[in-house]
Write a structure and sequence with these properties.
single chain; 6-stranded antiparallel β-sheet; 6 strands; 18% helix
Amino acid sequence: GPQLHIGYLAPDGGYAGLEEAHLANTRLFVAMRSAGNVFRDVRTINGQLWAHVQSDRKAQDSLVWYGPRSVVMVTGTTSVANLEKLAASLHVGSAG
């Protein structure tokens, strides 16, 4: 299915990526893009639930929003706070 990847240089010099996919197997997509996908916790950002996962090497954090037909992910080597800011700037879960 369709996939989107956009990369940014974060204010702290780390990397932040935005991933979006419309796939049947979103869990496999997240595992591949997050380099291991070890679940840490759930965070609420702008009223939406995001899973916080970390690579198995602890070199990369990701925040993942699972929609009914898609997945949105912010991921990278920047701080989790920067990933939360990027996630907060997105309009996930809205009809418009």
